[in-house]
Amino acid sequence: MSIDTKTMPKLGFGLMRLPEKDGVIDHPQLCDMVDKYMQAGMNYFDTAYIYHEGKSEVAAREAIVKRYPRDSFMLATKLPAWEMRKPEDIERIFNDQLERTGAGYFDFYLLHSIEEGNNYELHEKYDSFGWCMKKKAEGKIRHFGFSFHGSPELLEKVLDDHPETEFVQIQLNYLDRTNPVVRSQALYDILHKRGIPIIIMEPVRGGMLADMDPEIEAVFKARRPDKSVASWALRFVASLPGVMTVLSGMSDISQMEDNIKTFSNFEPMADDELQIIDEVTNKLLAMSQIGCTACRYCCEGCPSKISIPDVFRTVNTLRRYPDDWRAKNYYGSLIQRSGKAADCIRCGQCEGVCPQHLPIIDLMNEAADLLDRVV
Question: What distance lies between CA 49 and its chain's CA centroid?
């Protein structure tokens, strides 16, 4: 059964950055967000085994599965290779996901973060592709694909080796088109040429393309004063041919409302708007910023309990605004509940799981030099 792309909403609700209150998922606000999203006629939810340290799938059960008829929404989740030690682990993880979500089946199931190295090798070693096809035959999976953080060369190989792939999820935003690590334009071109439906993740690059320098924000506002900065990033990727759904990891009700406004009566980008996107891209590339998307994959295994994305967020703010007292206060508050940048022991655990392939050890050393003089 092929994917009916016409039934897919252009905006997907990513459950990786859910609203929190006092350090736990804010269930009432999440339910309000789900309700607004569903009432807008949209119904694709994306979670994963590791999101919110395993609590995202449970939150999906409480906010979606228990509150809406099963055939009224689509739920996607993912199989993490790094949690697999033996073939039986695939079945164990999948059963955990069914129990956590209470969904009965998954409309979309993805092999999580295929890239060069252990992730792809483990999926091949344990025949994850074949196992997923069996689950699809059993009706436990409706559609099968993978999320991808590797090279264009690997993408071509995986697609050649596994023509059973129905869709692929890639990171794509206007800033990463020419990123020599992400190479998202090349990934998009491969998938579009092959006619494979594309799901987009990180369209606003973890919020980076939603919170802009005032000078850059003014460029957008001059053309569309009624539209948010984030809407430009979302419309850019949603306007691309072959893009089936654009995921947004919304963290509060205001983000949900703004995104619904963007995708209701959706307007594809005009030629002059694409020129503005190119202008802004050039301005952003001229800035020195750490390309962290705040996925937080690095945090769970950090022996020093450092909130690495928040450290990088502070560094990026100080790079733009060296005298910003708010960044200094933010870091002072952060290290009351998190390790300091200087606490990094250079173990490399974080670099092994970073989808952006950042040199985190070197960046943390730079952060320690900067931030431990700030506080």
Answer: 14
How far apart (Å, rounded) are the C-alpha atoms in residues 106 and 184?
A: 27
Do 197 and 167 touch, CB atoms closer than 8 A?
Answer: yes
Question: For the segment 20-66, what is each residue's pLDDT rounded down to a tens digit?
Answer: 998 899 999 999 999 999 999 999 999 999 999 999 999 999 999 99
Q: Are 23 and 15 in contact (CB under 8 A)?
A: no
Rounded Cα gap, residues 212 and 349, in angstroms? 31
Q: Note whether 34 and 63 are within 8 A (CB).
A: yes
* Nearest alpha carbon to residue 235 among 206, 265, 193, 196: 265
Instruction: Please state which of the four CATH numbers 2.60.300.12, 3.90.1150.10, 3.40.50.620, 3.20.20.100 is assigned to the domain occupying 5-285.
Output: 3.20.20.100
* 3-state DSSP percent of the chain in helix, strand and coil, to 5: 50, 15, 35
Residue 135, Cα to own-chain centre: how many angstroms? 25
Among 142, 200, 194, 214, CA closest to 170:
200
Helices (H) and strands (E) in the chain, counts: 15, 10
By CB neighbour count within 10 A (0-12 exposed, 13-18 middle, 19+ buried), where does 147 fall? buried
